[in-house]
Amino acid sequence: MARKSKNNDFKKYLKFILPIVILILLVVLFFSYPSNNSSSSTTNSSKDGSEKFSFSLFGNNDNSCKYNDGENCLNTQSKCICKGEQICSPDRSKSDNLGCYTPFCGDGYIDDGETSGTCCIDAGCSGSLICDANLNQCVKPQCPFDCCVNDAQYQDKFCLQYYSCNSLRNSCEPDDSDNDAFPDYLEIQTGTDRFNPDTDGDSVLDGYDNHPLFNYLPRIYNFDWRYGKEWLIFTKKFEFDLTLSEDIVTSYEKMPKINLISRDDSQLKEVAQIMNNLADAEGYNDADKLMMVIAFSRSFNYDYTKLNFNKPLPDWANFPMETIIKKEGLCADSAVMAVALLKEMGYDTKYLVGPCYEPDTGSWHAIVGIPFVEGITLDGSERYLTYNGKKYYYLDATSRDYSGNIFYSTTSKNDFGTTYCPANNFVVSDD
Ligand SMILES: [Ca+2]
Ligand SMILES: [Ca+2]
Ligand SMILES: [Ca+2]
Ligand SMILES: [Ca+2]
């Protein structure tokens, strides 16, 4: 009886205890399910790497990263663990919930291994170099000008064909291979030779030649004037013809007004030869030869249109041949012409300039300085200046409108005398 009773007690005990055990298990199950995950997902890790679901029979849930509660890879390293190439950097805007981040070149952060050499997009460049984002390379900055060739600071930028870089101005300027004032690209367009400064051989550089491909039909220029030993009493008429191409005549107006006296001019050489021949035919001494040329110069008209050009001389004066062809000019034109022509004839002449005062304040006068030569008679009133130990006598080559004594003297006030343009103020102005 007792055994039966014992068996019944156990059954009663099971009936009582089993529901309690099952109830406890259900309660444990319920609390082991994460409260923030109400979905029925059974995946145990999301793409951000966090543990979404864990099952523990014993209800121990501390192994998952509670990022909603502020846990991250930095402050809870044991649970919030970054994976693979991720780094822990909760401050970055694109970090995941755990504060993990996968760095890449170009993300704006300098990470381990990123230098100017490996990732200049993030790490930047040293010195004046800049990062080329397409190449991810440090390069010199692009030249900001027309051109920068072999410039240490900038990437080289070259000029188009037939242009070269002026390194002082960083600008592309046209090539002129033969230095004839005619750029290569224009020579190619025109058909002239870019390696021959005078394609048609008419003595006019291509750049100043109205017809650079052919010698334009020449024209005859006639000159006549008078000179005599007894000045204004007995005179001899001289004359000569000069054959000049129109291209030569127009070239003087195109050329820059530099080296007016020193420029090598084959036409002026021809005139000098004519003058020497004319004087030699008369058996003239040096003094008469000089005066014959001065008389030639003084036969020209005074160019009143240039009268108001009160500029320093002679940068605005004409070329000697220009004055000869026009047969007119100011004192500067006549003096430049006479000095250059007499030099070609073998005389050591100087171009002299000096200021003139009342009533024409600010104006200048230009005259010729000549050395003493055979046949000159001096009366003591003549003026001269000493230059390099040599006396140069004043000679006024300006037009017949100012006729008078040829020599510039203290008494020749009608001839730009000392009151008007003080003789002591003349200086040598060679060009
Ligand atoms: Ca040229
Ligand atoms: Ca040429
Ligand atoms: Ca020519
Ligand atoms: Ca020509």
UniProtKB/TrEMBL annotation:
Membrane-spanning residues: 12-33
Keyword Membrane: yes
Top-level division of the source organism's lineage: Bacteria
Phylogenetic placement of the source organism: Bacteria, Candidatus Zambryskiibacteriota
Keyword line: Membrane, Transmembrane, Transmembrane helix
The keyword Acyltransferase is assigned to this record: no
Signal peptide (UniProt feature, chain positions): none
Coiled-coil residue spans: none
Protein name per Swiss-Prot or TrEMBL: Transglutaminase-like domain-containing protein
Record-annotated Transglutaminase-like domain positions: 272-370
Species, as recorded: Candidatus Zambryskibacteria bacterium CG10_big_fil_rev_8_21_14_0_10_34_34
Pfam families hit by this protein: DUF553 (PF04473)
Gene3D superfamilies (UniProt xref): 3.10.620.30
